[in-house]
Amino acid sequence: MGGYLFKRLLLAIFVLWGVATVIFLIVRVVPADPALLIAGTDATAEQLDQLREQLGLNEPLYVQYGQFLLGILTGDLGDSYTLKVPATDLIASVLPNTALLAVLACSLSILVSFPLGLLAALRVNRFTDRAVTFGTLLTQALPNFWISIVLLLVFSQTLRWLPSVGLTGPLSLILPTIVLALPFISVLTRMIRNGLLEVMGEGYIQTARAKGLSERTVIFPHAVRNAAIPVVTIVGLQFGGLLGGAVVVETVFSFPGIGDLLVNSIQQRDYNVVQACVLVIAAVFVIVNLVVDLLYGFLDPRVRLAQ
Q1: What angle do CA 148, 191, 134 make, to 5 degrees?
Q2: In terms of Cα–Cα distance, which of 32, 61, 78, 10 is closest to 268?
Q3: What stretch of H or E contains 33?
Q4: Cα 307 from Cα 301, distance rounded (Å)
Q5: pLDDT over 70 (residue 256)
Q6: What is the DSSP letter of 173?
């Protein structure tokens, strides 16, 4: 287990380094001048040069890259050009909102997917199975922003049951949570259905039935437990994906999370905040998947041996 843990940690560090490098290069390709953004169009050439010097923008690219990596190691991701506060403070103020949204969406997905997947597997090739399959495919095919707009029109504008934008209380979490959870429910339901169908065809399930065990005993202690192992991996991957999907949802609902902060920072060309937001989202994704890999290796020793 120690060797497996070391390899996964080393891989996670390399992935984070690669993500940081890509983020740094992409941000530098954007044709915008932060000094002009901060000083305004009325600033003189001397004032712009002085500001670029203060921001370190006149340094060679490799020097800026070294300072960027050193800042990551020391927890200093720079200051916002527009708000004049550390980027880490901005992220710390909104990240709990996004984390709450992601946890709620993930919990809702698991609660809905397991009964649907189980029901579809037990009624395979019948109307229930076809209805669940059609519903999950349709839900996944529809874009998040379209679903968001429809829900806003129905529940906020027409029925006036739920608030439309912002984070004003528990009710304001309902629509963003549903929109964020729907694609996850589709993936997880099909995964559980197919996993159960595969497991229920195994020899040990037939043996359990031949022993005269009840169908409930065969399904829950045996089939569901074994079918749940690959689902753990999917939950981890999708949880990381929820943070990326939150960018669209938070923008539509004006939800004060890291996705909304990222979009606003891109519009204002606030390099440091953009870098910090993307880096934090990537780091959370890598950490969640590292935990899932370790959990998967713990649950199934064959994974550790295969490494």
Answers
A1: 55
A2: 32
A3: none
A4: 10
A5: yes
A6: G
Map residue 79 onto helix, strand or coil: strand
Q: Where are the alpha helices (DSSP H) in 221-257?
A: 225-252
- 254 by DSSP, 3-state: which? coil
Cα 189 to Cα 58: distance, rounded to the nearest angstrom: 53
Give tens-digit pLDDT for 50-96: 777 777 777 888 888 888 888 888 888 888 877 888 988 999 999 89
Place of tokens 């949204």: 101
First-residue to last-residue Cα distance in the chain: 10
Question: What value does the mean pLDDT of the chain take?
Answer: 81
User: What is the radius of gyration, based on Cα positions, of the chain?
Assistant: 24
Query: Which pLDDT tens digit goes with each residue over 116-162?
Result: 988 898 888 899 889 998 988 888 888 888 888 888 899 988 888 88
- pLDDT attached to residue 31: 63
**pLDDT tens-digit map of 93-119:** 998 988 888 889 989 998 999 889 888
Rounded to the nearest 5 percent, the helix, strand and coil shares of the chain are 80, 0, 20
Strand positions, DSSP E, 158-275 = none
Distance between CA atoms of residues 305 and 3, nearest Å: 10
The answer to whether 171 touches 217, Cβ cutoff 8 Å, is: no
C-alpha neighbours within 13 Å on the C-beta side of residue 195: 25
